[in-house]
Amino acid sequence: LRALTALESQGGGQFFGAPGFDTADLIRSDSSGRGIISLLGVGDISSRPALVSAVIMFLLANLFSTLPEVGDAERPKLVFFFDEAHLLFADATKEFERQVVQTVRLIRSKGVGVVFVTQTPKDIPSDVLAQLGSRIQHGLRASTPDDFKKLKATVQTFPKTGLELDEVLTTLGTGEAVVTVLDPKGNPTPVTPVGIWAPASVMGPASDDTVARVNQSSIIMGRYRDAVNPDSAEEKLERRAEEAVAAREEAIAQEAAAKEAERAAREAEKAAAKEQAAREKEMEKLRRQVEKQQEKEEAARQRAAERRTREVESVLGSVLRTAGREITRSIFGTRKR
């Protein structure tokens, strides 16, 4: 998400919006069969190198995945020219360089050529430079020690030649260059100074009016004129992030509810245990009261029984004493008799 945000800050919404770009529109020809040059207006490359690199890799990857294998064609279907190529590799990661190397090496079999335009070959990473068979080097000027180092490094990127390339490169005039390409057997041709035809176009950026006029006359303008706003990747990511937050909050709420239910269960269990203990205590109290009452009643019964026993014994004793006196009197009579 942070990487997408960084691309968006460089204007990624304009390049990755809808309708999507059809790379087949790059492979077009006019009524006479001549190829049509397509210019991709990416703006100031130096201010958005990451975005431009992403666009280029998208186009090359899309072409590689959609174009059929053609082998060693007589001429390419499409040639990409990447101006200010050194900016594409500014702060580039090893993974990006690896992807460029793989794409440049394999896409040739799809009939696509790749040309990197920069000031010196050393501006291109060595692994990428090794995949480029053709070199067109314009004049270089060396007036400082660093310039001479760059000049020497540039000379070392060319095949061995009898020319004093360090002198040749510093004496080339406007419209002159040294060239080496691959021969039919795939070997580098000798380095040769050549003169290049001057372009018949204006040497400078096209005016806004010219760009607008060319765009309006393009047969594919209607396809790309009006931007549509479907559910964007950013919106999908935002929705997924919101859903993730909601799911996390729901999980937290469920966890809190489970903890609360567990706490309530523990409290209920504790209350039930407390209530049971209170009931048992009350039952024990009642049992002791009953036992105490029973003991009192038993003691009262025993005292009553003892009292009755004493009363019976007292009555019986009195009866026995009276009976004894009467019996004695009956037997012995009284003394007066």
TrEMBL record:
Protein name per UniProt: DUF853 family protein
Species this protein is from: Schaalia georgiae
Domain of life where this protein originates: Bacteria
Region spans: Disordered: 265-315
InterPro entries documented for this protein: HerA_C (IPR033186), P-loop_NTPase (IPR027417), T4SS_component (IPR051162)
Residue ranges with Basic and acidic residues bias: 265-313
One Pfam family named in its UniProt record: HerA_C
Helicase HerA-like C-terminal domain span: 1-334
